[in-house]
Write a structure and sequence with these properties.
The chain has helices at residues 90-106, 109-123, 129-140, 145-158, 161-169, and strands spanning 12-15, 17-19, 24-26, 47-48, 59-66, 69-73. It is an alpha+beta fold. The protein binds zinc ion (2 copies). One zinc ion binds next to loops.
Length: 173
């Protein structure tokens, strides 16, 4: 936009500022710096603008040209994994940890082990994603509804779209 003092090239992402729990604090850190915060006003956690593993900016607002006009898309939820090095962001790590804890607290040691072994294949799209999601769902079927809801809330952060769909609708026939 005019008057911000920041000129965007045709196709570019602004760095986003996200808290360690995954709240999007400011998706436009450079064009709207007044919105930057050192700590999250939702949860009090420190904020970051770069991948802790490789230092690449976290993807925020996408600026692009549409029909010769400037347009932008402001992301409301941060990505789960770094697009540069593939590392899980801190909020994704925390969600994976919450999923493991739900399994350890509510499931038998054998079922918790099944969840642990299959988590990587629902966190990343692989040839085993469907079967891994199914095995996790089956393990949680003995843990009660509360455990499954806790797991699904965590999975919303770290799981692939395919895995999330299986958790919501069951395995496709
Ligand atoms: Zn927060
Ligand atoms: Zn990275």
């Amino acid at each position: 936009m005019m008057g911000t003092g920041v000129r965007w090239r045709r196709d570019e992402f602004e760095p986003a500022q996200v808290c360690e729990n995954g709240h999007m604090v400011n998706s436009s850190t450079e064009s709207r710096p007044a919105l930057n915060k050192r700590f999250c006003s939702d949860c009090g956690a420190p904020t970051l603008t770069e991948c802790p593993a490789c230092g690449t900016d976290i993807e925020g607002t996408h600026h692009y040209e549409s029909n010769l006009a400037r347009a932008h898309y402001a992301r409301s939820h941060p990505l789960s994994y770094c697009h540069e090095c593939g590392a899980a962001y801190p909020w994704t790590e925390r969600a994976l940890q919450a999923a493991r804890e739900a399994a350890q607290i509510y499931l038998s040691p054998e079922d918790a082990e099944t969840v642990e072994k299959n988590l990587p294949d629902v966190a990343h799209q692989t040839a085993r994603t469907t079967i891994a999601a199914h095995l996790i769902q089956r393990a949680f079927s003995k843990g009660g509804g509360a455990a499954w809801e806790i797991f699904k809330a965590a999975a919303a952060v770290f799981a692939t779209e395919e895995a999330k769909s299986i958790f919501t609708h069951g395995i496709p026939h």
